[in-house]
Request: fold
Amino acid sequence: MFEPVTYDGSLQKKYEMLYKQLDALLEDETDNIANMSNASALLNQFLDRTNWVGFYLMKDSELVLGPFQGLPACVRIAVGKGVCGTAAETKETQVIQDVHQFPGHIACDAASQSEVVVPIIVNDEVIGVLDIDSPEKSRFTEEEGTLLTRFVERLLPHITH
Reply:
């Protein structure tokens, strides 16, 4: 359905197609888990050189594993711990080129080398994060972090009815 993401200057154009596909895929569906499941599957299909794509959802002041594509993962992550917990605490997208250089990195999958995490924010409150891992160092650019933040913004109406 999609060509894998390449860095030939058309990244923005490819993401615009992804946003349209997301809207079409989730149109008229009101179940949050179903929509996050399809969003993670869509991203997993769209992105190349990744080994985990999924969501952690805020429950009782910690991040709990939600819908994902990939190997089994850490189930609970404290706010402020690891890349996911840092994104939740700071409310800022984290683009990490080498996870082994990130203080307090949580190694759920030893193959992961780089990571991007986008907080999901509603009314200034973090309700979860989108987490994407790659087995390659420096897989994600700052531009891609911005484009994935926009992906989460497009997803919000489909998971916060």
Remarks:
- Strands lie at 52-59, 62-70, 76-78, 94-96, 114-122, 125-134.
